Amino acid sequence: MSTAFFSYIESLALRTWPAETEEYHNGWFFRASGGITRRANSIWTSDGTGPWQLDDARPKMAEAFYRKHLLPLRYHISDASPAGLDAWLERQGYAKETPCSVMIADTDEVCERTEASRNTKIKTVVQHRHDPAWVEHFIHMEGFKSEAAGFYDGLFHRVKPDKGFVSLIDGERCVGAGMAVAEDGWAGFVNVVIHPQERGCGLGKLLLHELAQWSRDHGASRLYLQVMNDNAPAIRLYSSTGYKRLYGFHYRTQTSS
């Protein structure tokens, strides 16, 4: 696969997670959102350009941007970032954080591999927009602080492509949730979570099935997602449903001097 293809997938993923404030600088996006999530508070550098140039002016511009927003200077580095940028940041003392993988799959294959997970006991609810209850359930299952609800509410409103919000309901209790964003024949899955007390019971495959079905209904023949490399259970789940690793990314964060 080419760097240009990696950059294309990175561009799709960028639009699933729009920051509160974004500035475009010659292929890069400076992103700030009050410090909630690395993705929404880092410099997107996956423009697929050539080697890193030491005289590039963007790092100095980034310093001013993040100083203004009272945030640490953090870079999102992927296999589509300029060659040599990651090594340069390492030499400057930037700490490497949160290695992740981007995985892709065929929508029909995921639907087929997860078909057996369908469960008449579990009610599936699919919404084309989120509501306060969906956000509350998601925050609770992830174990996030309630203060994060405002950020996620704003995030979901800012997503422009078609989006679907799936909930798995067991009786009166939400036991799983996930979001799919469809664009240009692809769909990305984000904010995928199963209730901690229900993990390992097959609900993950059911949730993926419902998200893949929604994606197929909205014109997406291919799927992608991002997963942290230390999340072995999630990687096993995704691999079992047809996902394969495409490339990796991580963050580089400026450390205190």
Automatic annotation (TrEMBL):
PROSITE patterns: GNAT. Transmembrane segments: none annotated. One of its GO terms (molecular function) is acyltransferase activity, transferring groups other than amino-acyl groups. It comes from Paenibacillus naphthalenovorans. It comes from the Bacteria. Residues 123-257 form the N-acetyltransferase domain. CDD domains: NAT_SF (cd04301). Keywords: Transferase. InterPro entries: Acyl_CoA_acyltransferase, GNAT_dom, Rv0428c-like_C. This is GCN5-related N-acetyltransferase. The keyword Transcription does not apply.
